[in-house]
Amino acid sequence: MKHVVGIDANDDSATGAVARHRKKNVYPYLRARGFTVDLYTGKKAQRALVAAAVSVRGVDYVTGVGHGAFDRYLGYQGLPIFQVGGYAPAEARTKVVHLLSCLTANGLGPDFVANGARAFFGYDTDFNFNTRTRDGCLECDSEIDRGFADGLTAHEVYQRTIAAFTRAANEARRRAKPHMAARIENNRDHLCAPTVDPRFGQRGVRVVRKSKKR
Amino acid sequence: MPKRKPARSTKRKKPAANQKRARSSKRRKSAAKKKRSRASQAERVPPRQWRLPAGFKADGTTMVTLQDLLSLPEQETKRLDDLTETEQADLTAERLRNLEKFSITLVGVGVLNKEDAIREVKAHTSAGKTLVEIEKRTLEMVIGTARAHPRARGGR
Prior knowledge:
Oligomer: heterodimer
Number of helices of chain A: 7
Shape of chain B: elongated
Largest interface: A-B, 34 and 28 residues
Helix content of chain A: 25-40%
Distance between the termini of chain B: 68 Å
Radius of gyration of chain B: 27 Å
CATH class of chain A: Alpha Beta
Helix content of chain B: 40-55%
Number of strands of chain B: 4
Order of helices and strands of chain A: EHHEHEEEEEHEEHHHE
């Protein structure tokens, strides 16, 4: 059975909205695909607990939402969970990591890969969304988790996610909402993954084998 | 003796060939009209965009609305790509200021209203730069639409 560690900081309105979306749309999907999910959310989204969880052998996939900066990913009350130079290589080794967080692809992502992570998916800008207008940005990002759960390679996951962002942007254009389309495209064009640069890992890695039934 | 009108047949008469043609032509016209309406919907520039600042005059000091930008000769305005970082930030801040309401959520920052967004743009923070980039994309989109489909101006 494949093991996922989810780290969802949800102590403000921005991360809270994303965490709710993921609770409803991402984790049930992963469980339905046979993954065991260890979820660290709220007060549990803290360094000591997460470090112990991801260091365990057999954790294949790490996913989460939280504030971020170039070199760090933050959890509950803005305290760092992962920071360049502040985590053990065992926490990254052999894992595929997806962080829905701002800016982490600038430093932390490549650092994960340098420390043994097989692939990193994240953003090198401030990820934006608007739940009021239902722009679909969160839905598009969730394609990353769903893609890996479906047994796609990192490259295939990237392509599927980009296609989802493009569809959403085109729909916004069709509805004569250029600002919404621009916001969606901005997220799309700042998604970093092995396809974009080898600093983010290998294009061919999978978390699970692709099922023949699918 | 007045002639009696022949009783109406209960059988429905087959439409004449020219009636059939007329009906099918009507259907075709209606379908084409729907298609045109969908197309114009897709090409429309939202009315508020016409009133928002969309660039600078060539002197780099006066902002112009989208409407003015498109009506002035190109050499009298600055190209979007030629704007300096400060001009882009000023343009973004001015566009935001002219909106009735504005809200955006940035995962790294939180929910920004109009005043917060203007502050971030003016301070050239990471969030501000993201907002400038989004506004630039929006402008490229609306200017492109307006130039490519002159009918889009009908959306004013």
